[in-house]
Amino acid sequence: MSSATTVHCPLLEIDYRFLEEKGWQYEIVVEPGEIRVYIRGFELPAAYTPRLTDLLIRLPMGYPQANPDMFWTKPDVLLARGGYPNRADYHDPTADGWQRWSRHGGWRAGVDNLRTKLAAVKHELGAGS
Questions:
Q1: Which CA distances in Å does 73 have to 1, 5, 14, 111?
Q2: What are the tens digits of pLDDT across the range 69-124?
Q3: Model-level pTM?
Q4: What angle do CA 26, 14, 114 make, to 5 degrees?
Q5: Dihedral of alpha carbons 102, 46, 75, 29, sign
Q6: Each residue of 38-47: pLDDT tens digit?
Q7: Would you state the torsion angle of the CA atoms of residues 100, 101, 107, 110, taken in this order, to the nearest 10 degrees?
């Protein structure tokens, strides 16, 4: 039995394989103008509290040509030493109060996918700031 709940949407087959390979519990929801990929119980590095959070990646409808900018967490994630991480103190009202991490990286249209986006998220989180 799959750990996923999905609806028909324009994700790449490689994205589905990646999500299944990682064994995450995930949900894919199509919203006006975007596809939301929710990953439940995403593990964070020791620099953060809590260590487990839900992660939201918002893919624009032009994905994979369009850049899925930023990422979101819920509940709020703080630095273990106190305070919000750099550029992660905003709660986006269009994302049901999720904590927005304002991170902007390079996106190679037609090359990058959900795997490379999650690698970029993990790289940012690994900085611990």
A1: 26, 19, 24, 25
A2: 899 999 999 999 999 999 899 887 766 889 999 987 788 998 999 999 999 999 98
A3: 0.87
A4: 60
A5: positive
A6: 999 999 999 9
A7: -40
Question: Which residue reads 């929710």 in tokens?
Answer: 38
Q: Which residues pair with 74 in a beta bridge?
A: 54
Q: How far apart are CA 113 and CA 65, in angstroms?
A: 9
Q: Check: CB of residue 85 under 8 Å from CB of residue 76.
A: no
Interaxial angle between packed helices 114-126 and 13-22, expressed in degrees from 0 to 180 and rounded to the nearest 10: 50
Answer yes or no: are the C-beta atoms of 24 and 40 closer than 8 Å: yes
CA distance 47 to 110: 33
DSSP class of residue 126 equals H
